[in-house]
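Support reply, case 0932

Customer input (verbatim):
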Amino acid sequence: MNTVRIWDLPTRLFHWALVAAVAALVVTGHIGGDLIRWHARLGYAVMALLVFRIVWGLIGGRWSRFASFFPTPARLLRYLRGAPTPQDEAGHNPLGAFSVFGLLALLALQVASGLFADDEISFQGPLTGTVSGSMVRFATRYHKNLGQWLLIGLVTLHVCSIIFYWLRGKNLLFPMFSGNKHLPPDQMVEPSADGAGRWLLALVVLALAAALVWWTVNAVPPASMSF
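Our regenerated output:
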């Protein structure tokens, strides 16, 4: 078995930061009260992480790029027939890719709806003043009901999939901690670039993402909506 770097350090840090932030969002959102301020801050953090991941999905390490694991029909058919290529499984396999893209999409919708939500008690999204009252009500209902349960459901499915593969002898968590996969010589793939230069680039991308979120949150003065 040979060791191959699959997940670069920025991707691994993104992954675990997102896990921690989403877990904290669920807790603070359900407790509410004074914690709603932290709920909002965590939402902004997730927004910055999502922007970072979108950019990193274009310029990041070989197996962090969306193109490397996008579930094309050919890849999906090969995987379902039990004949995937090493490239089909090096990063996310085609079924896992659906879960990844689904999670990113639902997180983006949840963050976006939070920007326009207003619970009329302790939180008003920073962009509520840019849309109509009916849109604010729609965003609030989606954020507090359908959106959160869709997200929790998909996260639960994601965790169950990890357990399923673990029971079949495939540990998906170890590579996300170490960055490496152990592959036989006949399944070797190109490793991801992962060094100080890439880490510096990731820091720049994250800083720009955070600046974009800060501008988005502060660009529009708060407004009182008429319901």
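We compared this against your earlier run and they match. Two observations from our side: The first strand starts at residue 2 and ends at 5. The chain is about 65% helix and 5% strand. Please reopen the case if you see a mismatch on your end.
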